[in-house]
Amino acid sequence: MTEAQAMPIAIVVGLLCILILRSREVVWWVGALFFLWGFTMASTTPGLTITDFLQWAVYQK
Question: Where are the bilayer-spanning segments (predicted)?
């Protein structure tokens, strides 16, 4: 999946997660939705930036 494909999907799924949490209907499939959103975000430039920052923070001595 390219960044051009991943970014719109990440935005849509992220908005769905926010709407579901606001509706107070938190069930098992919400976790699956968040997992898919995180998996999609990992394919985008912000996801790579976050990964680089976390790796820097963990390996900083």
Answer: 6-21, 26-44
